[in-house]
Inverse folding.
């Protein structure tokens, strides 16, 4: 018995797909001819991303090679996942991953809500001149160089610094705070709040400006006080912005900027201060192990991308707000 298969539906489906692609290309061509100047303005932006964002991805292949600058990428021998295994089985894997996660979790708990709370407080200020003065003051730390910020932190936390003066005034003992591993996380988080909270209020204040003012008037008529208005009108009104910012923040849970860490840490507090990015810096630039640092960086990026996709998917299913 011979079984014959009818390929006509499959052929028709392929023709439909090809037809849709050709129609799309035709529409794109007509759109480009119609809006030539707009597409011309987009050329520098596209070129920037192609040259500086996509083409350098080819260099990530050194994570799978024993890279030597003199031989180039293609001339360096292929070693597969050797550098990844070296990192996973190395003595510092648990330490740098733990520190990276803990600092990010603390930032999520304390640093992320800080600009939200600050924006809600500023939104309650009725005197315009005082409101602008407060905004100017809290924006200032954002414009201070990170090197200056870290220098101030080191001076304030020194044995004869301002923090120890306050501790001594209330009966405590002077100590060099930045030599105590258990105090590095609090210092890092507090300085982050001071530096970033004010500037972070901009996006939330913009979201607050879009909340319908008639809702507040209706709430006043119903007898709702400012606290009830905040809970039932203000926060729901800026909730989409909060969710988007939270998704973006969760997408960087395995990343801590190495600049601030390197400027603040020292060998005595490596146990709590050393993170993935600072470890990559030492192994890659100071020890010239470029392939190993590329492998660690690629692992870090892969985890961040996975967290971003998971957070976006959960958000889309729970409250229908997502990046894509």
């Amino acid at each position: 018995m011979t079984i014959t298969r009818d390929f006509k539906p499959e052929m028709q489906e392929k023709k439909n797909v090809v037809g849709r692609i050709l129609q799309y290309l035709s529409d794109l061509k007509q759109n480009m001819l119609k809006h030539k100047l707009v597409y011309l303005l987009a050329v520098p932006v596209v070129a920037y991303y192609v040259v500086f964002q996509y083409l350098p991805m080819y260099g990530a292949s050194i994570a799978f090679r024993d890279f030597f600058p003199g031989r180039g990428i293609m001339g360096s021998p292929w070693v597969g996942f050797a550098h990844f295994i070296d990192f996973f089985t190395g003595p510092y894997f648990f330490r740098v991953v733990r520190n990276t996660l803990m600092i990010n979790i603390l930032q999520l708990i304390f640093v992320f809500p800080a600009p939200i709370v600050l924006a809600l407080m500023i939104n309650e200020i009725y005197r315009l001149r005082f409101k602008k003065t407060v905004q100017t003051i809290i924006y200032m730390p954002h414009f201070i160089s990170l090197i200056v910020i870290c220098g101030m932190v080191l001076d304030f936390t020194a044995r004869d610094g301002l923090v120890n003066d306050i501790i001594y005034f209330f009966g405590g003992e002077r100590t060099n705070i930045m030599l105590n591993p258990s105090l590095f996380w609090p210092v890092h988080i507090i300085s982050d709040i001071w530096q970033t909270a004010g500037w972070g209020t901009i996006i939330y204040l913009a979201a607050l400006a879009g909340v319908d003012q008639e809702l507040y008037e209706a709430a006043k008529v119903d007898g709702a006080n400012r606290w009830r208005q905040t809970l039932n009108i203000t926060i729901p009104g800026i909730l989409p912005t909060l969710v988007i910012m939270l998704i973006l923040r969760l997408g960087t849970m395995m990343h801590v900027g190495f600049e601030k860490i390197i400027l603040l840490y020292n060998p005595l507090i490596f146990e709590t201060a050393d993170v993935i990015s600072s470890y990559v810096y030492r192994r890659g630039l100071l020890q010239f192990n470029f392939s190993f640092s590329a492998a660690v960086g690629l692992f870090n990026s892969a985890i961040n991308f996975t967290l971003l996709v998971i957070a976006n998917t959960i958000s889309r299913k729970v409250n229908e707000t997502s990046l894509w």
About this structure: The CA atoms of residues 213 and 233 lie 10 Å apart. The domain at 93-319 is CATH 1.10.3720.10 (MetI-like fold).
